[in-house]
């Protein structure tokens, strides 16, 4: 059974949505209008208006999270975020783009990048895992919470601690309902890069 982390008092909201509720080990939120996380690249603007509930970590950790949502409008997105500040963060999960729900990640160090790929499983119900240790970020995705293929491996700014937790945005609308559950925050798993467990 998961720790009911969403009912803990140490979660810090960035842009708390108007509608959200925590029950048991789950968090349900509905996005506000025109919410986003992005910095500069291509579009020339910086937005830090997305919804994020962050929990403080140590300097190394693994976090995983189940995400259930109905992604249907351009840039609808939800997943996991790891954040130091407004200039240094990563978000990863499903984002609706090019007419379909895509697996996506945005890594930001002053400016944002964006990587997408088709997701071959049910985009409305998936798990994300983020591990940070020794200045390295490892992102993994799972369709069942058991098999965890690699999404991305990247350098990531070192810090004494991070904020990590669920993230959701709808740059083009309001009203994406997302349910987050099975959130676990542990010391880094320390598994081999190609260990899918």
TrEMBL record:
This is DUF1349 domain-containing protein. Pfam families: DUF1349. The lineage of its organism: Bacteria, Pseudomonadati, Pseudomonadota, Alphaproteobacteria, Hyphomicrobiales. InterPro entries: ConA-like_dom_sf, DUF1349, UCP022704. PANTHER family: REGULATION OF ENOLASE PROTEIN 1. It comes from Bradyrhizobium cytisi. It comes from the Bacteria.
